[in-house]
Write a structure and sequence with these properties.
Blueprint: E1 5-8, H1 12-21, E2 25-28, H2 34-40, E3 47-50, E4 59-61, E5 67-70, H3 75-80, H4 82-87, H5 89-96, H6 101-106, H7 109-113, H8 165-171, E6 175-179, E7 185-189, H9 190-193, E8 212-218, E9 226-232, E10 243-251, E11 257-265, E12 272-273, H10 275-281, H11 288-298, H12 310-329
Parallel strand pairs: 1-3, 2-3
Antiparallel strand pairs: 4-5, 5-8, 6-7, 6-8, 9-10, 10-11, 11-12
Helix pairs in contact: 5-8, 10-11, 11-12
This protein binds flavin-adenine dinucleotide and iron/sulfur cluster.
Flavin-adenine dinucleotide binds at residues 26-34, 36, 51, 71, 75, 98-99, 103, 106-108, 110-112, 114-115, 162-165, 212-213, 240.
């Protein structure tokens, strides 16, 4: 591991000033992803600025039904918060579907948003990887890609974003609050926060140097909404998603859907908002056939590789059963 210096920041301005003064600085939150990557030699910061003492460790519930989740709120505290469980139960389910109890007690909201891909070649510094070393090539396309993406990929990279939490946040129309290095504030809708790989897979978000995530805003869900997170994985726990779906639906008394929000995990380099499915379902009382057709349309732009093509049928099934289950609950 490269030697590094460690500073604990006492306020956001100091954290940003430290980050800008030394370009090789990385913020340290729970460290559950960053420290692993430093041990592997993938991340090589010269300085770590610990942000866990900053005043971003609260969840504020708003009278309109929305909430503001501070960036250093631990994943375990987010999942267990009574207001989150009552108003956004799907988000709680998504967080609890990830990692382990021990990891969730250390991991933070901001760190979960910025965790790196689990592509095995990204983590192995002896193998070419365009995300780790721009222009080096992609080992996964001809190699092990069974766990990787089928939507939104490029010839440069087919990695998936690994987070469960952000798939839930995507379906909730969350907004990421950022403090820019100069002190300006920005509110970035989650749908505009992540970048597709294109020919620059090393640039994963729209953040710039010194940007500090301060909070994630959850707008109030649609009136009468029901929601669910469902994750398909190789083991019952402690495994990343092969496919996951976060669904929020609201229906009229005759079960006609008036609001549908679906996000998919495990299939794309970003939390994938399934807009085609949403458009097809609004105003409908969907049955299995309608749902299957909408799902197949969503994946019509997919570019599967030999070992991950199975994800398409799996995702269509998971979306269908999840929406049908939610329709029972409305
Ligand atoms: C064995 C294992 C299994 C796991 N399984 C899952 C799983 O199934 N599902 C899942 O979703 N996750 C899983 N995880 C990932 C885990 O959720 C992440 O490691 C964790 O959420 C990262 O949060 P952290 O606070 O520890 O981030 P850190 O490791 O501290 O930081 C991660 C990155 O975010 C940056 N950062 C952190 N906070 C901020 C901020 N406020 N502003 C700007 N930059 C910031 C850091 O600089 C760093 O680049 C697993 C992890 C492990 C080790
Ligand atoms: S899929 Fe992306 S992360 Fe994986 S080896 Fe290729 S470029 Fe690297």
């Amino acid at each position: 591991m490269r030697p590094f210096t460690y500073v604990r920041a006492s306020d956001p301005a100091q954290a940003a000033a430290l980050a800008v003064a030394e370009p090789d600085t990385t913020y340290l939150a729970g460290g559950t992803n960053l420290i692993d990557l430093m041990k592997l030699g993938v991340a090589r910061p010269a300085r770590l600025v610990d942000i866990t003492e900053l005043p971003f460790d609260r969840i504020q519930h708003r009278p309109d039904g929305g909430a503001l989740v501070g960036a250093t709120v631990r994943n375990a505290d987010l999942a267990g918060d009574i207001g989150i469980r009552q108003r956004f139960p799907m988000l709680s389910e998504a967080v609890l579907a990830g990692a382990s109890g021990q990891l969730r007690s250390a991991a933070t909201t901001g760190g979960n948003l910025l965790q790196r891909t689990r592509c095995v070649y990204f983590q192995d510094i002896t193998k070419p990887c365009n995300k780790r070393t721009p222009g080096a090539g992609c080992s996964a396309i001809e190699g092990h890609h069974r766990d990787l993406a089928v939507l939104g990929t490029s010839d440069s990279c087919v990695a998936t974003h690994p987070s469960d939490m952000v798939v839930g946040l995507a379906a909730l129309d969350a907004v990421v609050h950022v403090r820019r290095a100069g002190g300006a504030q920005a509110a970035i809708p989650l749908g505009a926060f992540y970048r597709l790989p294109g020919d620059t897979p090393d640039r994963e978000t729209v953040l710039e140097g010194g940007d500090l995530i301060t909070a994630v805003e959850l707008p109030p869900p649609p009136p009468g909404a029901v929601m669910r997170y469902r994750k398909i994985r190789d083991r019952a726990s402690y495994a990343f998603a092969v496919v996951s779906v976060a669904a929020v639906v609201a229906a009229d008394a005759d079960k006609r859907l008036r609001d549908v929000r679906i996000a998919l995990g495990g299939v794309a380099p970003v939390p994938w908002r399934a807009r085609r499915i949403e458009r097809a379902l609004v105003g409908q009382r969907p049955d299995e056939e309608t749902l299957r057709a909408a799902g197949e349309d969503e994946f019509s732009s997919a570019t599967p590789l030999p070992h991950n093509a199975f994800k398409i049928g799996l995702a269509v099934d998971v979306v269908s059963t999840t929406v049908l289950d939610l329709l029972e609950a409305v």
